Amino acid sequence: MPVTSQPRITGYHAHIYYNIATLSQARALCEEATERFGLAMGRLHQRPVGPHPDWSCQLAFAPAQFGEVIPWLALNRAGLVVFIHPETGDDLLDHSDHAIWMGEMRPLKLSIFYGATETSEM
Fold this sequence. Notes:
By secondary structure, this protein is an alpha+beta fold. 25% of the residues lie in helices and 22% in strands. It is built from 3 helices and 5 strands. A 5-stranded antiparallel β-sheet has the order 2-3-1-4-5.
């Protein structure tokens, strides 16, 4: 059987999902993660953006930080849903097959990655 090479992971994104009632909690979590680990924090979107079905904030980090950031988020998310995916250059696979969820899985609008008119849900 031929050996196939694994895609190279160049980074990770953790998307913190929230709503009006949990906005301040999400802000505090994202700001603390940024201060603690030196992560790049995106905007606190108060509308669905891209494939994300809920309000969200993105935390970007290097592969070398995975072992610290992910356990910290698991212990400090306090009920918030966290969607984590690698950056390999294949957005569809990164947001589907390669994804990690903390909390309830939410339906993503994966069709934006392949131009279909139907919405795929995860």
